[in-house]
Amino acid sequence: MLISEFFIMVNQPTLLSSQLFYENRVVEVTLNRVMLGFWKEIETRRKRSASFNCISKDADHHFLLVSEIVGARETEEEDQTNKDGGRKHKVLLYPYAFTVSYTERTKHHCWRCKDIIFHCLDEAQRQQWVQTINNQLSLLSIRPKRLLVYINPYSGKQRGKWIYEQRVAPLFSRASISTDVIVTESANHARDHLKTEVDLKQCDGVVCVGGDGMFSEVVHGLVSRTQSDSRVDQNQPNQDLVPCALRIGIIPAGSTDCICYSTTGTNDPVTSALHIIMGDSQPMDVCSVHHNNTFLRYSVSLLGYGFYGDVLTDSERKRWMGPSRYDFSGLKTFLTHQYYEGTVAFLPAEDNLGNPRDKIKCRTGCHICEQGANNAHLLSGDHVHKMAEENSDKETSGDGVWRVIRGKFLAINAASMSCACPRSPRGLSPYAHLADGTTDLILVRKASRLDFLRHLIRHTNKDDQFDMSFVEVHRVRRFRFVPKHSSVISEVDLSETSGKKICNQVCTAHPNDDTGHSNWNCDGEILPHADIQVSVHCQLIRLFARGVERGTTFDTYTCSVIEGSSLSWQA
Ligand SMILES: CCCCCCCCCCCCC/C=C/[C@@H](O)[C@H](COP(=O)(O)O)NC(=O)CCCCCCCCCCCCCCC
Ligand SMILES: Nc1ncnc2c1ncn2[C@@H]1O[C@H](COP(=O)(O)OP(=O)(O)O)[C@@H](O)[C@H]1O
Ligand SMILES: [Ca+2]
């Protein structure tokens, strides 16, 4: 926050100002449109450092941003006795207490909900404070007021229901958010409910409690519903899709929780609940996956053939093991060391600002995503790029130059976002972007077990997993894969809009037919076909998140106001 912004906040017209009792002193509390507080100590028994969000040690002026307040309420008896402890005699003079809940940033991108209690002289004063604060919050139009919540009771360690009821619902209630809660009874319950039954105008967002699979269900329900309401045919691979109006919140309770982790920086249910309450908004790319012009599925995180497809296929039979099924199947798949032959054709995102190895991480307010959205807009409709054919292994279509790569692969992964998760805190593609309209296509060619292990281990530390001779990575807008022996990338029109026949390369059958096909892992679901066409749809959905915030707390109001008008800032 800039100092000038701070002064603008301070100089807002006052909505309410009173002398209230706080901790061991009487303070002047002021509320304006953007901040609560800025209270000056009137009477102090002993010097204490206050300790909430924006307060520093020596401060005798403090503030909370209204945008970071969860809600205000009359303080319940027990809260009051617990927190006021030894100050009873003072509290008796100010018996009418109210609590303001607000968000506080803690370590590792986690947020917590903290309370601060003020005491008033009479009931009328208390009512006035609670109402005025809550009225200001209700004016924040980005905040959701009604949410539709789906809980998968079987996600992860089967604690979804408990997590929601114990950790999340109380926060929603503090923020005066009303909810319709549905505990799913079977797979695709949430998807089908959203597709056909819900009146989407009756809510401000959808929340899923579960893992990446549950999120995927909600995405399918919302995206399909939006397309059918707009009469858009999802079966056309190059069709521009209509963005979804409602935002989606994820309360992580699953096995991988990669989408939550990559969009908030942690897999903590309370943090996610607070992002939802604040009304955060993070746009996100969605890949559509087709087989021969028939829509199969959407993907937002990982599309993986070979290693991750095989891990998933094996792990599905071991659901009873919970999240550790992936480690077990991962080890087994690693030992099997299977490779697969096929042809990958892709359309590089050459006009994109970034590349998968540029060391630029996607962070809150990412400018690469902003630029990517502009480019994607230009690329849609009539603004197609017409580029010349450059060399023999490149093919042109109406919208750019396609590259074709044949080979034997241990893994083919498309990461539309970093895919950071607790198992791999930097993710499959650490510099991939949430909303730039591209996916990072990672080709891991046949290599020795030891080399592949070295590559995998690099996902868990700071070393570059792409800096290996058998690994290549491309930032792409579209791609197609054809396994060996399939009817080939032949006479296939990869650009429906241009009408040109391109990519008429024949993936010839290889003599050593001993490898077979793998399956595609599409955000944790197994796809029924190996031959797929994938297109990225820039910013098709929005999450209640803000991306991973940059490291320091400097951006987040660690400021102290020193006597007079000089300000000092602490990192
Ligand atoms: C040697 C250690 C190597 C660790 C490599 C870790 C890489 C992890 C990358 C994870 C990317 C996750 C992308 C997200 C996928 C999810 O959509 C999807 C569904 O999630 P859900 O069940 O919550 O709904 N999840 C998955 O497909 C799970 C992928 C997890 C793969 C774990 C692989 C572990 C590999 C262990 C290899 C062990 C070799 C040891 C040799 C001595
Ligand atoms: N009530 C239910 N019973 C069985 N399966 C369900 C139910 N609700 C959702 N599912 C399915 O469970 C799968 C896994 O859900 P997810 O929340 O991702 O958990 P996990 O992270 O443990 O895999 C998803 O494919 C989802 O469609
Ligand atoms: Ca992306």
Model description:
The chain is α+β, with helices and mostly antiparallel strands. It has 3 domains: 3-140, Pleckstrin-homology domain (PH domain)/Phosphotyrosine-binding domain (PTB) (PH-domain like); 142-281 and 544-552, Rossmann fold, CATH 3.40.50; 288-538, Tumour Suppressor Smad4 (Sandwich). The chain has 13 helices and 25 strands. It has a 15-stranded mixed β-sheet that branches. The chain is elongated and about 85 Å long. The termini are close together. Residues 43-58, 381-393, 487-514 and 552-571 have low confidence and may be disordered. Residues 285, 416-417, 432-433, 436, 438-439 line the site of calcium ion. This is Ceramide kinase-like.
Can you describe this structure in just a few lines?
The chain is an alpha+beta fold and 571 residues long. 25% of the residues lie in helices and 30% in strands. The chain binds the ligand CCCCCCCCCCCCC/C=C/[C@@H](O)[C@H](COP(=O)(O)O)NC(=O)CCCCCCCCCCCCCCC, adenosine-5'-diphosphate and calcium ion.
